[in-house]
């Protein structure tokens, strides 16, 4: 009997090891892929030209740059050697493989609301992909922010662990929308203002956030500051395509969220998101004088420019710059061209030009728009190397004066210079007097 056990036990152990190493079934991997899209894992863990989930994406923060880690199946540089518990702890609790505290650039304050099964489905999907044998750049913040143990104090004030449970008094659609908005899609990470410790201000959920070079707008049902005058169909279309005629066109981080995440969700999920957002408390903003999509009208500002001398044009540089750089796509009257997915958006009745802050328009002029969509790419070139800081300020102020909220037409070259630096955009080459044509 002893000899029999000695012969059989190694075989049993071998079969057990093989069973443990069997890949996850296709249904689990498929769900993990869907969840990874919904959670927008690509955004922070894949660089523009890098391999999927190989890390290295720089996330700018007020304290320095934090680099997204390699979460591919690579055993040395990625999560290939991580246990299920280690992966769940990182995603839901902000604790790394070796017990180190993670920075909240990883939105575990939202992901903590995910179910363990969903987190492990994402892990199964990541493990099914090819490994990326590359080390991510090391995050090296200045003192005292490089002391990760200090994050325990941040968590004390800003982190409440716990899975989000369905509300039995609400519909299945509402609960699905809540789970997507509050947990998976972590909408509050961008659209909720921050408190003094840079945690989400839970007293003002979805009232709008400052992302440095962009503003994440108020997405509560307030009819002036938020999305209260949007229809559900408009919200679904925007989340799916990034554009709604007479409302908005996505740029910056929102364009990235649509490109990498929201466009892949079924319409039922997008409808659920809209249903939930339309149910949260409406929060006003005193800085917003009217509905952001209500400002402006077509302008005849181009009339009188033809045949004028450079001296006359110099007296109204914003108008001349607009006609020379913007009117080709957006129309001389700012009316845009086309409709639907591939439209060049009108500059009036647009939530960006109707905003109280011109930051997003400046950042778009400098940084471009590039939404890579399944239906096709939506492109706007960068003018960073064509226009000086002063010229960007002039054309921005012209756009807001003619087509948007005139109160926001207060941009100066100093503000543009800061946004240019934040975006890492180059300045145009200096033209010497003798080089002018």
Automatic annotation (TrEMBL):
<feature type="domain" description="Cytochrome c">
    <location>
        <begin position="27"/>
        <end position="130"/>
    </location>
</feature>
<protein>
    <submittedName>
        <fullName>Cytochrome c</fullName>
    </submittedName>
</protein>
<feature type="binding site" description="covalent">
    <location>
        <position position="329"/>
    </location>
    <ligand>
        <name>heme c 3</name>
    </ligand>
</feature>
<keyword id="KW-0813">Transport</keyword>
<feature type="domain" description="Cytochrome c">
    <location>
        <begin position="172"/>
        <end position="281"/>
    </location>
</feature>
<feature type="binding site" description="axial binding residue">
    <location>
        <position position="45"/>
    </location>
    <ligand>
        <name>heme c 1</name>
    </ligand>
</feature>
<keyword id="KW-0249">Electron transport</keyword>
<feature type="binding site" description="axial binding residue">
    <location>
        <position position="330"/>
    </location>
    <ligand>
        <name>heme c 3</name>
    </ligand>
</feature>
<feature type="signal peptide">
    <location>
        <begin position="1"/>
        <end position="19"/>
    </location>
</feature>
<dbReference type="GO" id="GO:0016614">
    <property type="term" value="F:oxidoreductase activity, acting on CH-OH group of donors"/>
</dbReference>
<keyword id="KW-0349">Heme</keyword>
<dbReference type="GO" id="GO:0020037">
    <property type="term" value="F:heme binding"/>
</dbReference>
<dbReference type="InterPro" id="IPR009056">
    <property type="entry name" value="Cyt_c-like_dom"/>
</dbReference>
<dbReference type="GO" id="GO:0005506">
    <property type="term" value="F:iron ion binding"/>
</dbReference>
<dbReference type="InterPro" id="IPR008168">
    <property type="entry name" value="Cyt_C_IC"/>
</dbReference>
<feature type="domain" description="Cytochrome c">
    <location>
        <begin position="313"/>
        <end position="403"/>
    </location>
</feature>
<feature type="binding site" description="covalent">
    <location>
        <position position="41"/>
    </location>
    <ligand>
        <name>heme c 1</name>
    </ligand>
</feature>
<dbReference type="GO" id="GO:0009055">
    <property type="term" value="F:electron transfer activity"/>
</dbReference>
<feature type="binding site" description="axial binding residue">
    <location>
        <position position="191"/>
    </location>
    <ligand>
        <name>heme c 2</name>
    </ligand>
</feature>
<dbReference type="InterPro" id="IPR036909">
    <property type="entry name" value="Cyt_c-like_dom_sf"/>
</dbReference>
<feature type="binding site" description="covalent">
    <location>
        <position position="326"/>
    </location>
    <ligand>
        <name>heme c 3</name>
    </ligand>
</feature>
<dbReference type="GO" id="GO:0005886">
    <property type="term" value="C:plasma membrane"/>
</dbReference>
<keyword id="KW-0677">Repeat</keyword>
<feature type="binding site" description="covalent">
    <location>
        <position position="44"/>
    </location>
    <ligand>
        <name>heme c 1</name>
    </ligand>
</feature>
<dbReference type="Pfam" id="PF00034">
    <property type="entry name" value="Cytochrom_C"/>
</dbReference>
<dbReference type="InterPro" id="IPR051459">
    <property type="entry name" value="Cytochrome_c-type_DH"/>
</dbReference>
<keyword id="KW-0472">Membrane</keyword>
<keyword id="KW-0732">Signal</keyword>
<keyword id="KW-0479">Metal-binding</keyword>
<keyword id="KW-1003">Cell membrane</keyword>
<dbReference type="InterPro" id="IPR014353">
    <property type="entry name" value="Membr-bd_ADH_cyt_c"/>
</dbReference>
<feature type="binding site" description="covalent">
    <location>
        <position position="190"/>
    </location>
    <ligand>
        <name>heme c 2</name>
    </ligand>
</feature>
<feature type="binding site" description="covalent">
    <location>
        <position position="187"/>
    </location>
    <ligand>
        <name>heme c 2</name>
    </ligand>
</feature>
<keyword id="KW-0408">Iron</keyword>
């Amino acid at each position: 009997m002893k000899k029999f056990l000695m012969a059989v036990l190694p075989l049993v152990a071998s079969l057990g090891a093989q069973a443990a190493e069997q890949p996850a079934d296709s249904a689990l991997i498929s769900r993990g892929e869907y969840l990874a899209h919904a959670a927008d894992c690509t955004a922070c863990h894949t660089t523009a030209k890098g391999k999927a989930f190989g890390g290295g994406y720089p996330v700018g923060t007020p304290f320095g740059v934090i680099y997204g880690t390699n979460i591919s199946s690579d055993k040395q540089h990625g999560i290939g050697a991580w246990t299920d518990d280690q992966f769940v702890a990182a995603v839901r609790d902000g604790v790394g493989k070796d017990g180190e505290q993670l920075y909240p650039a990883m939105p575990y304050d939202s992901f903590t609301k995910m179910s363990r099964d969903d987190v492990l489905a994402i892990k199964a999907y990541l493990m099914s992909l090819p490994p990326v044998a590359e080390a991510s750049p090391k995050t090296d913040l200045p003192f005292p922010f490089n002391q990760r143990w200090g994050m325990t104090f941040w968590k004390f004030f800003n982190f409440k662990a716990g899975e989000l449970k369905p509300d039995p008094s609400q519909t299945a659609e509402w609960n699905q929308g809540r789970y997507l908005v509050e947990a998976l899609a972590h909408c509050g990470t961008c659209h909720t203002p921050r408190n003094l410790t840079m945690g989400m201000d839970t007293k003002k959920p979805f009232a709008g956030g400052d992302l440095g070079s962009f503003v994440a707008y108020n997405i509560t049902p307030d009819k002036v500051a938020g999305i209260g005058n949007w229809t559900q169909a408009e919200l679904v279309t925007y989340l799916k395509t990034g554009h709604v005629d007479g409302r908005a066109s996505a740029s910056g981080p929102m364009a990235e969220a649509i490109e990498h995440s929201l466009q892949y969700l079924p319409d039922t999920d997008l409808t659920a998101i809209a249903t939930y957002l339309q149910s949260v408390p409406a929060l006003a903003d005193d800085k917003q004088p009217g509905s952001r999509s209500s400002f402006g009208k077509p302008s005849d500002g181009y009339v009188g420019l033809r045949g004028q001398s450079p001296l006359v044009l110099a007296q109204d540089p914003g108008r001349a710059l607009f006609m020379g750089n913007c009117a080709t796509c957006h129309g001389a009257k700012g009316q845009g061209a086309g409709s639907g997915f591939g439209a060049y958006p009108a500059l009036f009745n647009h939530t960006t030009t109707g905003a109280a802050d011109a930051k997003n328009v400046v950042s778009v002029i400098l940084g471009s728009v590039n939404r890579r969509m399944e239906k096709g790419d939506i492109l706007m070139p960068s003018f960073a190397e064509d226009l000086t800081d002063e010229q960007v300020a002039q054309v921005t102020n012209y756009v807001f004066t003619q087509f948007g909220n005139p109160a926001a037409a207060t941009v100066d070259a100093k503000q543009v210079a800061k946004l240019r630096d934040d975006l890492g955009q180059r300045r145009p080459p200096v033209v010497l007097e003798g080089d002018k044509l």
